[in-house]
Amino acid sequence: MRKWLVVWMLLIGMITGAVAGEVKGKIRLGYWTSGVSLPFGRVLEAKRFLEKDGIDVEYIRFSDPPSSLKALTTGDIDIAFGIPLSNFFSAVHDGTPLKLVAAVQLADAVVVAPEDSSVRTWQDLKGKKVGGTYPSATIVIIANTIAEKKYGLEPGDYSIVSGNESRLAQFLVQKQIDASILRSITYENLKNKIKLRKLGALKDEWENVSGSPAAPYIGMGVAREEFINKYPDLVSSAIRSWIRVEKWGAAHKKEVADILKEHAGFTPENADNVAARWGDMYHVALDPATLKTLETEHDVFVRAGVIKGQFGRNLYVTEPYRKATDAR
After folding, report:
1. Strand 282-285 to 109-114 pairing
2. Where are the domains of the chain?
3. DSSP classification of residue 159
4. Sheet order of strands, 282-285 included
5. Is it true that 24-106+215-324 and 109-205 share their CATH fold?
6. What element of type H or E holds 206?
7. Nearest one of 232, 225, 216 to 300, comparing CA atoms
8. Which of 183, 140, 146, 184 is nearest to 160 (CA)?
9. pLDDT tens digit string along 153-208?
10. Is 92 left (phi over 0), alpha (psi -120 to 50) or beta?
């Protein structure tokens, strides 16, 4: 009787496991709940790509990027996306045991000027006031590099006026600045309210600087080195889920907008604009072309005095990405 009871319990366990799905492991995944990270994170949570792959996920949300990087450093989370590129480089060069596992968020930004301004090209920025988040911000450094390498403008040829995106828009309206570097999504929200002339997009200009067809990045997928070594398959699952978010979002713009309105508090206009630009904001990759553009960004940060060190294999690991994409 006891033997049959044991067999019966084993059968019940097998059936229950088949119905519930095998739990492959747990990930504590962090992201910044603002900027470009917020839409990506909300869609990732809503579509449950990781959970459908059998992963137990604890989503940990942060109010600013430094907090998510600090949580990785202290071991409070295992993996995160949206980590600022220059901050990550700096942390690893200081000895923090983290690895880049995928580039995620593109530097999707433009340089604009008022339509009635005399500024019509990048060369016209000489002697002008140009808005930017702050001088050492990744997007500003990328724009400065393009201006120097492609258009011959030295860093001192124009001045950067700092401010958040809404303040920069206000500066443009009030003619307190002559031009500005803005996220493309901000430009899309403003262009029907403020008459602006687009001088160029960073991603379109970048290849002349980097020699790589890959666009520049601002937000990284980063994991603790210990977690990668112990659970490489979980890291690959996380990367695979990010790839699914990127591709699903580009193909389901209405559903993306609905998620952002319902779960992120976006206005209908902002939700629609984000959904429309999804493919320009996110591209998950760590192929040779992407590594080439990241190396160029690293060198640019060094020249700007933002970080120190050299770009090398101590910064990244490619195997989880290769497995996530089934590359051999």
Report:
1. unpaired
2. 24-106+215-324, 109-205
3. E
4. 55-62, 25-32, 79-84, 217-224, 98-106, 282-285
5. yes
6. none
7. 216
8. 140
9. 988 899 999 999 999 999 999 999 999 999 999 998 888 788 999 999 999 999 88
10. alpha
CATH dotted code for 24-106+215-324:
3.40.190.10
| Centroid of chain to Cα 45 | 16
Phi, psi of 41 (to 5 degrees): -65, -40
Tell me the sheet residues that pair with 100: 222, 316
- Rg (C-alpha) for the chain, rounded Å, is 22
Residue 174 DSSP one-character state: T
253: left (phi over 0), alpha (psi -120 to 50) or beta: alpha
Helix (H) or strand (E) holding 154: none
Here the tokens at position 234 are 């979980």
Classify residue 94 as exposed, middle or buried by CB count within 10 Å of its CB (0-12, 13-18, 19+).
Answer: exposed
Where do we find the tokens 């200081």? 94
Residue-wise pLDDT for 258-278, tens only, equals 999 999 999 999 999 999 999
Spatial separation of the C-alpha atoms in residues 186 and 164, rounded to whole Å: 11
Instruction: Report the DSSP beta bridge partners of residue 61.
Output: 31
User: What is the amino acid identity at position 157?
Assistant: D
Q: What is the pTM of this model?
A: 0.89
Residue 325 has pLDDT above 70, yes or no: yes
DSSP readout, 82-148?
A: EEEHHHHHHHHHTT--EEEEEEEEE--EEEEEETTSS--SGGGGTT-EEEES-TTSHHHHHHHHHHH
Question: How far is the C-alpha of 126 from the C-alpha of 155, rounded, in Å?
Answer: 10
246 contacts 280 by C-beta, under 8 angstroms: no
Q: How many CB atoms lie within 10 A of CB 225?
A: 14
Domain range 109-205, CATH class: alpha beta
Tokens representing residue 277 in the block? 């630009």
